[in-house]
Amino acid sequence: MSRKAPLALAIVLIFGLAACSKKEETTTKEAAPAAATEPALQPGEMVLIPAGEFILGSSEKGTPAFPQQKINLPAFWIDKYEVTNREYLDFSVNEGYTSEGKDWRLFFTADKADYPVANITWNDALAYCKSKGKRLPTEEEWEKAARGTDGRRYPWGDKWEAGRSNTFEAGLRAQAGVGQYDDVSPYGVRDMIGNVQEWTANWYKAYKGNTVKDENFGERFRVVRGASSSIYGSRAHLWDRSAYVPQALYGFGCRCAKNATPEEAAKAAPAK
What we know:
three-stranded antiparallel sheet, paralog of FGE (formylglycine-generating enzyme), alpha+beta, single chain, disordered N terminus
């Protein structure tokens, strides 16, 4: 018998129980007035980010994100949502992949299937994206998808608005289902400031024009972007850069990206 069979059976049972639970919940709520909701989560759904300039980094000297500058990027696709437990579990089973971050399963239960996968390493994140014919986003791509073109501090603007993202202020101190908060970028990408921090493709290196001598710059650490449920979002910025060894396990998740074809780029909406 295949070694995957017991695990596959367990998955069927887990999601079967989850489906029954959701059916019961739906039945009890049928009498309530219908409310406007987000469209059903589409696994792997992506957003096309148009080509053009955007504002990268910070004008604050002495920070890893200095100097602020305009960067021109070609059109690209990025996942609308962070990769979920459900998606990562399917990948692990179908590909027979053994994660470096084995503890990610400790965060997974049937009711958290659509929560972002957490506690995966950089290599785990890369392997997942490659299995989908995608790649990890560069930090420049991540920042443009989060900030738009006007250099905003948060996905919705420059002023902190309580309750809009799953950061420390929300009080959960844990992940929430993807897309549950009004944490939406100008391009419609979700959970860019809250929920989990995300791996990017980049080594932690100085930006062009940054003369700060930082012993951590180089090809030892990978860049992580965004805040999380354990970080104060009101103190964060979308241009913040964090550096960790690729094997780090601090609740990190990911989303994927891929290049746009010339035909797709031509149809992309104007930059915002």
